[in-house]
Every structure is written in C-alpha cells, then in structure tokens.
Design a protein that fits this description.
Helix content: 25-40%
Radius of gyration: 25 Å
Shape: rod-shaped
Distance between the termini: 70 Å
Number of helices: 2
Largest sheet: none
Oligomer: single chain
C-alpha cells in the first residue's frame, strides 16, 4: 500500500527506528509509493452538503 503523504512516510520511518514495524514493511510501502510526488498532509474530504427538502405546509383552517 503506498504512502499518501510525506507526513505518513515520516511517521513510518519513526516507527521503523523505534522498532514498532519491520524493515520489510517499511520497504514494501516505500517501493509501492515509488518516486510519486506526495503532498505534505492529506486533508479529509469535505462532506457533501445536504439539500434542503421543501417542506409542505398544511393549510390552517379559518375559524
């Protein structure tokens, strides 16, 4: 699975240094990413805005 951002690549490198992931895992991710130009950070996708439904108003009875 390729890295999505430079920040993610740095985090994996940190985990590799601390011994929380194997060198094989890091290299596998690094190889699958290749020389792709990555963004610094990945921003979450904006949620789609809800369309307002037109409300049907009930007519009031005249008294």
């Amino acid at each position: 699975m390729p890295f999505k951002s430079k920040a993610q690549r740095r985090k994996f490198a940190e985990l590799l240094v601390t011994g929380k992931i194997s060198n094989q895992t890091f290299e596998e991710w690094n190889r699958s990413t290749g020389a792709a130009k990555l963004p610094e950070r990945v921003t979450p996708k904006a949620k789609a805005k809800r369309k307002m439904k037109s409300r049907v108003r009930s007519k009031r009875k005249a008294r």
